[in-house]
Amino acid sequence: MRKSVLLVLTFIMLASIALAGCSSGSNDTKSSEGTKDTGTTDTQVTPEKKEDPVTLLWYTIGGPQKDQDKVLTEVNKYLQEKINVKLDMKVIDWGDYSQKMQVIAASGEPFDIAFTSSWAFNYVEGARKGYFLELDDLINQHGQGIKEVLNPAFLEGSKVNGHNYAIPTNKELPAQAVWRFNKNLVDKYKLDITKATTLESLAPMLKAVKEGEPDVYPIPSNIGMFLPFDFALEGIPVGVPMNTTDFKMVNIWESAEAKQVFKTMREYYQAGYLPPDVATKQGNDFEKTGKWLVDKQHTVPFADIQWTESMKYPIVSTPMHEPLVFNWSVTGSMQAISSKTKYPQQAMEFLNLLNTDKYLRNLINNGIEGVHYKRLTEDTYEPIPDSGYSMPSFTLGNMFLLDKLKADPADKWEQYKKFNDSAKNAPLLGFQFDPTNVMTEIANVKNAVDEFGPSFNTGSVDPEKMLPKAIEKLKAQGIDKIIAEAQKQLDAWRASK
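^ thats the sequence. predicted structure below, dont judge the formating
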């Protein structure tokens, strides 16, 4: 009996030891495979299966790219590793983008992210129509990097009804109009462009070139004169003076400043400084021929270098006014998240990475090293001609992360930041006029502006005779109602601030 009991106990002990050994070995294996970060080995843990990556559909503007799929393959490898996201990027051509995106958004066709701006797939209109998701909470939760890199004026100035509906591209913040000169003629006639401080100050320069070059029109096109007002909406002469203290909306064509500009342009036209058909002439052929002296452009740091490289002859410029931050300048390039997206968090995580990750930003912009560009130094590159990939950099995200071209100054992005920091806010920055109550009047006034504006801006008609008629027509078409509505909204907005 005793021997039998001892034998049974011996078998039980041996079995227990064997089971303990198996259990211990199992825990060691699980620890090395599934719980190595925790360091626990006393509990059996089943490794978590990684979820399938979310695919985000991103519409953006530009030309077709032959190697887009090849680049996206590399982009998606990186994104899956970083945030478990993949991209399906659709590039729509410049001329078709606005119309196609309006159709897509209005029909409810799904997308996750889309390029929007003040000039393509209108941002404010899209926000008001409900196409875009309100981003305030998402930015705070998953877009902290964006808030760190963006000048605060970008997010503040792009709010609609107090909320952000898209992420602005970190690029030049203000707008600054400049007189842009053909340096060949500046040097030939020994012109001092530092004296070009007003429209009237151009007179002796225009005269010198016209007398020396009879076949040259010194002002080659309708350059769209700068007026010192902050316009409430594009294409309609309603706004407040830049130096306003009372924030009263006015009919800008009735202002002394507009009358003076139209008068001076009339004098220049009669002197032969502009082509006879300038009011209707299209295109910029003058840039190719070099037969011009001056026009008006908006500048960015080192713009003279870029214009010189583009035209293949030297260009210089001088500012008309200090850098100013307008609503349209902060909304010139943005990425919105669709209000119908199923993946708002992942979309914001992607936009945050796009604006903070140097490798990702350059990969999407420049393509693959050795295939689409050559690496010159740690932060400079040279595109490979006809490589099959060349995206428009300002449409995609934080430009300050981009590598520089060989010809770019070493301090390019530092100068951009300095330019941004030097800017002053225009008086209506952050105010977004809602045209809903005056849509008919806006359409009618816009037609009148299109009828008279080109002629006034080019001096093709006598403003002494025609401006009173134009103002009368603006009033008949409802400009005073637009002014009253804009004033009411502006007063309410300022009170809320």
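Confidence is low (pLDDT under 50) at residues 1-43.
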